[in-house]
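Re: the 768-residue chain
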Amino acid sequence: MLKNAGFKGGFGWTAALSLALALGAAHAGCGSDGTPSGFNEGDASLDGGDGGLVDPFGDSSIFGDGGGGGPVTSLVIAPKDPTVDVTITNGTLVATPVTFTATDNTGASVPVSWTVDRGELGVIGASTGVFTPTGFVGGTGNVTARYQAISAKTTVTVRVKVVQNGAPGGADAGVPDGGAGGVGGVGGEGSGGVVDPGTVGILTGPPPPTPPANAAELGFLYPYDKTVWPRGILAPLLQWQTTHGVNAVYIHLTEKNFEFQGFYSGTSLVHQPIDQAAWRQATNSNSGDPLNVDVVVAAAGVAYGPIHQSYTIAPGVLKGTVYYNSYNSRLVGGGNGAVLAIKPGALAPTVAVPGTETSCHVCHEVSSDGSTLYTEDSSYTTGASYDLRNSGAVIQTYVGAATSSDGSSNDRKFLWSGVYPDGTFAMTSSRHAREHNILDSQLYARATGNAIPSTGWTNAVTAAVTPIFSPDGKHVSFNFWEGPGGGGVTAGAGHSLAITDFDCGKPDAAAGCQGPYAFTNLRELYRDAGRWPGWPGFLPDSSGVVFHNTSVAGACGDCELSTWNNARAELWYVNAAGAPQPLRMDLLNGISGGTSYLPTNAQHPDDTALNYEPTMNPIASGGYAWVVFTARRIYGNIAAGAPYDNGTGAAPITKKLWVAAIDLNPAPGKDPSHPAFYLPGQELNAGNLRGFWAVDPCHTNGTTCETGDECCGGFCRQADDGGGLVCQDKPPAGCSQEFENCKVDGDCCGSPQGYTCINGRCARPVTK
């Protein structure tokens, strides 16, 4: 029996888990047989990392002929496919190690070398065969015994059960709300106190708790049932409505190989975070089965519930950074507009460009490669571009009262523009949006502000509103407001969404596109005389477009595509190839089976049309595409005030950023979306809008990393000296792992199982 008191104080294993997962990333198989790309499966020095030896000559020069005196022709492992149970009670781990043995074809014991392919599940002695679970995560791994050229495999399954009464200690003590003013976190007061044994008995029964008569008596407000969650973000704040004065709550998480029982006391409880450590364990233990969440509450000695939800866990961590505008941020004094940055999983945002804290900055755009940020000052007339790879150094300033050397006005030149993926130029958004640019739409260079000549555009399009480039730079989508059109496509006076192909000529690795620039194949994606489509965003593979679709324009000038003045909008999807089939993304907007599933109150009778300004993550993660958007919907019982109140920073307001999973390669006519979740870490008391998702600036070779997308060379592998993972160029042999560089599907590990090359990076298929 193994007892580890070192798990006291918030489990005390965050650093160890990071190391184990890093080892797993280096050694875990991405091919069909579990072999890591570029590694020979027979090389024990790289398989499991436990120092075991394998006979490199394939004879008896090291191990002899085994225990039976004759040649070894097969191995049998015992026990076969065992299950190991781990319990962690208030931080103390108890588990029983498993000892594996191997016998040969005669039944004699054989001195094999042992390895396990999932170091996060546990460690195995290379010569002893003793497998000791870590308790970090549950799941199933492969145990391999090797002797000479003979090997055999079995599985080991680790099941983890965690019981936590009251807030855990250490770094995982609740989910921070960011302190006074709500700068970050998910809101709430953190975890509650310890529940006495009698109340624990009431919460867990018998007798079973009393089922609520209806959702008003006890019902979830947030999260939403059937949400798809990525790994690596803060645990959600469970929020509910109730007619009872709740003084204790029981949170029960279950999935195939993990269970959590959390008990918390308090006064008039209406929300409670899932323990961060438990959330991390649950999401990392998930093997594609549903994560079930049940909540039981106790009031005046009576238990009520359970109320139930079921989640899907995507097997991947969200990548990139979300850059967004905030108009009440405490990070810049509470009164200025600011461009902030937040990484999914962060506790709080930061100012995107250091040194801009004392002045107002608004209306930003970011290149999808994360290199360039464009923004305007408080007058909306003067703007600048910033180098995000160089601590936000100014690249160029565009003074509204001046003109560029080609004579074009710099007034709002890059406002709402569509930025090319490498940031070197942008397509202007012309007129017809609040604080608009007055120029005709055209390409303008970042370095000079001068127009860039092109063919196929100026003769067809005069005003493209809220344009966007696809992540591969080969397409542009926009509201086609004005222009002569062509090929049967006409301008829609605000009511149509169009797409065109783009060729930037011969690209140069150092200098970017060299021209000539050409637009071809103008076509219409959507048209509705009663609506205004805009703010399009391409899926990572450019196969489809998510867009904002206004049903009620804001009551102000040029506010058809705004979030202000009672504007109402939904998010829609349309395929970018073939005959367009636009459709409303019901599940994202808050509709299931034709009915809203969103909470309501007197000021929020229907929040399904309070969704705006989507942008897509250019990297597919965990088998999904991910969209961040602005919403004025209720956030449980934390932010439930008037939807169009931008607030003063004194209390949480509803104008916030939300994220949702989008299916890759959706079936025609099928809603590709899933219920959304609140983006953790943003300021609760600020009005936050237009999250712009971009890849993080890449790191040079030799820099530590977790995945290949972080590296300029495109690959994150173990260092030559056997140390940790570092950025490097592609190894001389092997396939590309998830997030690493690729050109075609066949470059990706596991491509026979559906791995694909999306926007130059390998992406895993979703498991459904």
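The helical segments are 14-27, 197-204, 276-285, 586-589.
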